[in-house]
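I am hoping you can look over what I have pasted underneath with an eye to the fold:
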Amino acid sequence: MRWLLAILFLVGILFLGREIYPLYPFFPVDSGPPVYPGYVEADYLYAASSRAGRLTELRVDRGDQVTAGQEIFQLEAEPEASNLARARSRQEAASASHQDLLSGARPPEIEVLLARREQALAQERESSLRLDRGERLHVQGGISTADLDQIRSRHDTDLALIRQVEQEIESAELPARSGLQLAAAAELAAATAEVREAAWNSGEKQVISQVDALVVDIFYLPGEWVAAGRPVVKLLPPQQRRLVFFVPEADVALFQLGETVFFRQDGQPATASARLYLVSPEAEFSPPMIYSNESRHKLTYRLEATPTDSNHHLHPGTPVQVTRGESK
């Protein structure tokens, strides 16, 4: 009976060591470096629009590889397209008004003033001749002093008319007052800002991939209504994959940030390298237990590393075995 109990005890110890070893590599089974269990984790990107609308175009499908700058999907253009057209019309009107105030009167208006000046000059020449004759006649006694004064007054009026027309021409060639120019410039700036806002809103209806990525999932089909901010396509960029593995408390001090670790996936004979970028400052317990000196071997730390080759075929959730040295 005692021999039977001893055999059962040895079998239990061997079985327990076999089951614990994958999680706690400090149970040595060979002379190689310790192997730490882990898995592949990924950060997904969710392509969404900040505007609501009906999905009109879906340019990708599950399993497609998209490149940065490639269109993924498009929502119906209205009413953003109409708002953009109205904003551009207001901008053109404000620009024309501002330019008109800067350039002064229009050429036809200037031509009218120039014609009035020619007419005034002709009248002044005629009144000047009358004044010369009147002065000679007044000396000879042919006209009275009152008649001469009337002729001089007429000539002075013609001279004043010339000066008035020339001032009108000069004023017409000048731009508008500074206050009006500032008001027109502010109106143009506001209209330009409205165009930028309307163009941004319209552009949000066309969603473009920002990175090279794999299309993992699609949440809406053409014809369905998509609320603002709701993702339509789920993407996985290659550089967003990482390794998560667990190291016992006795070994965590061996790891340094930035060092190279090696890993192997199930079914992959070759090893690959990764750079360690995170050592969790908080410990984890597996399985749940009461902390004591006798149970410290169950205390583990979470470490994360990024593969040095972003093109390495890593599938999220795949188990991996990690070592500090390249395994044979």
In short: The mean pLDDT is 78. The first helix runs from residue 2 to 20. The first strand starts at residue 36 and ends at 42. The radius of gyration is 45 Å.
